[in-house]
């Protein structure tokens, strides 16, 4: 699995945003849509900043862009501080010319009884859009991609999951205390993610170094969902020096 190590997160993010922008423009020239799978969290923030810069300064249009986010806490109001709807609006969608109807983020406000149907519809919407062209991923310290915590299999699909204790601890500051972090989330499955045509997994900082090494050099297993990327024909790992520290 090819890994590209950059001096810092900024350079790495500029590269990834450039790859995304190239495909958006190429598709636009052909009169076609570009379907992006997007992540939240601290890792992709500079990618979104660079996409916004390209929109403002270099005329990059998002009129032909369709997006599907990986996950959302459950339950979660869309206007809550920690909601991924709000995150995406603040970091990207409110700052570019994307069509609101082209944006898809798992809905943390639906009734629990509706979740299974909702997840099936989410998968169907991805398929109807033609599948994901470029999927952006971060990685959690548990090895999760999306919120596919240890135990998530290669065939898993969009569903309601229980968050790992490590993940809840890492989210504690966002929620002003671990006890306020939701215990569940809706996430695309590993199988859903692996169907993307091109995948970029980004990881920055020394805190990610052990899980990055385990995911890309360790055995492929359910205990680290990101390890399934080793089997993807078109996945790239994008690192800064610190996150690459434990690679052999
Ligand atoms: C977020 C997501 C998660 C994060 C991961 C890393 O949509 O799917 O897998 O990418 O938890 O989070 P950060 O980037 O905050 O370290």
UniProtKB/TrEMBL annotation:
Provide the protein name.
Answer: Glucosamine-6-phosphate deaminase
The scientific name of the source species is: Adhaeretor mobilis
Domain (Glucosamine/galactosamine-6-phosphate isomerase) ranges: 9-230
Whole sequence portion shown: 22 to 269 of 654
